[in-house]
Amino acid sequence: MRTAQIETLCASTFAGGPTWLERHFATRMRNNPRFAMFVATHQDKIRKKLRGQRDEPGQCDVAFELIVAHRLLTGHSCALAYEMYAAGKTRGPDFTATYKGHLAVNVEVRRLRGMVTPARLGDALVAKLRQLPTGMPNVVVFGADGARSTLPEPGAGAVGLRVRAEAHDSAFFARHGFADASAFFRAFLRLSAVALLAPWDEGASGANSGAEGVAEPAPEAALWLNPQAKHPLPGAVRSALRTLY
């Protein structure tokens, strides 16, 4: 895709959003042709999502989805579907990435606002579990502000939830929509891994970020693998997902 085409596509897709958004993703699209084609394919959906947000923090949530899409499309070749389950009127993960034509993994994304603690990670994770389909690996990717070194390990929330389930804290899980702790644990088995990416924006929203010749700070991430997952991440998929951590 030529530079002029990318500029036209960005102007159409990101119009009305924060001023840094168009510039930042134009840079990503120039550097990654597969991501440029992804945006071109889903431009109507992206534009609708951005315009449906009430404020810039909401638009940043959408931007983080796209940053994860960019990272999934970097390095290893994969087919990336965006909100594949929505076609069946079912709420599901944001992305389904297929590697080598047959190794598929669902990737659900959420940007965490404000201070991140193990308890907040647990609350965010338990809210996502019911979106995870059966029959294949599922990864939840959280984005956070600040340096990775200041944040808890990505598995801290999951471990805390497992402790509550083993203690049969059904009242806690009922507040999150589960009938009891056993119902939660059945959903927990669908979780293959949790990744935590920080800083979520890789410098995107700064006044000079994304500008030509300005280096963005490298994000840091970590991956936690659920030892009780019914569908662990295959080795080949885990290697491909190293773009996330």
Number of helices: 10
Mean pLDDT across residues: 88
Contiguous runs where pLDDT drops below 50 for at least 5 residues = 206-215
The oligomeric status of these chains comes to: single chain
Largest sheet: 6 strands, mixed
Q: If you compute it from the alpha carbons, what radius of gyration comes out, rounded to the nearest whole angstrom?
A: 18 Å
Q: Can you count the beta strands? A: 6
Structure overview:
With 245 residues, the chain is an alpha/beta fold. It has helices spanning 3-13, 19-31, 33-41, 43-51, 56-72, 118-128, 156-166, 170-175, 181-188, 235-240; strands at residues 78-82, 95-99, 103-111, 138-143, 193-198, 220-225. It has one domain (3-244). The protein has a six-stranded mixed sheet. Helix 6 (118-128) links the parallel strand 3 (103-111) and strand 4 (138-143). Helix 2 crosses helix 3. Mean pLDDT is 88; it is low at 206-215.
